Amino acid sequence: MHLNQRSFFLRPAALKWITGILLISLLLRIALPARTIEFVYSRGLFPAVRTIWDNSLALLPVPLFYLFWVTVVGVLVLEGRRWGRVRSASRDRGKRRATLSIFAHLGVYVLLLVLAFLWLWGFNYGREPVETRLSFALYEPPLPELRQRVFEIETRLSELRGQVTGDTLALPDDRFPADLEADIRPLVAASLLRHNYPAPGRPRGWELLPRGILLRLSTAGVYWPWAGQGNIDAGLHPLQKPAVLAHELAHAYGFGDEGTCSFWGYLAAAETRDPLLRYALELAYWRHLAGQLRYADPEGYLQWRSTELDPGIRNDLQAIYDNGEKYQDIAPALRDATYTAYLKAQGIHEGLLNYGRVVRLVEGYRRATTPAGNE
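Predicted structure:
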């Protein structure tokens, strides 16, 4: 048995081409200035990729996330069966060659996945930071200002909630749109276009089943580059879904940075006249701020929360917490370590702390666009 006759990708010429293209791609990702990646890839090649993808494979009526993993499992099964057949028909030396063949095949598949990741989406990690493009500085509010922001946004949330319902019971599921994707995607796109960013194609945002498939991995949503689609856990509380979906759609529109995607989710709130969607989108950002205040002033925050927080908001938060208790994490430490390593490999050196960057982005943007502090 000759390995070179078994697979096109294992032929020396093909291996050289795959390895060479991958090395060149990695060098480009590392060496190219952010401004070049911004204009050549993120505003040039990627919108074309996005448009072609959304008008071809993405038209299938099922999440491509599932098809990706079905394909992976299928490849592993086929390679395993081939390995078993060759081993059973070979002597010791043939068995060793069969094992090497399997690892060679799997290695090539990994190289192709990395290559696809970079050109289908991954170069976006190297684009210019949004604060550079929009000409504002990140801002970390000091404690007194942080406290004021938590209180004033809570007042606005209370007003928005009052437009949705007159009672203080936790908002029920049936108040939310049946097709959330159709409501959220135009908001994210409009926010991008308003700030002179392209919003190409029509990226999908799916709710994955079974419920808890992501939540049990300490994840509410995921953008899968090889599928080109955003995905959120169907088990999320309805109040969480708009912001998580907006975050994943921001990834789909070409942003890798986690804080930046939450930033676009927050700005998307200004694009809707629906008080329920705006309430849900702004509530997600308010929880980031409130979390920082609780960390900085736990006693003061908890006292305010128990006595001053709008009862309806308090009940909504409790409903979110209760829903989260249904899906206990599986190996959260492993997930955190793995994703932190992934983010750092993409140049996001703060790892999971990057999620908290949304506060510095929103507050910096607010100071730049409303110097007097009025929203």
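Summary: Residues 1-5 have pLDDT under 50 and may be disordered.
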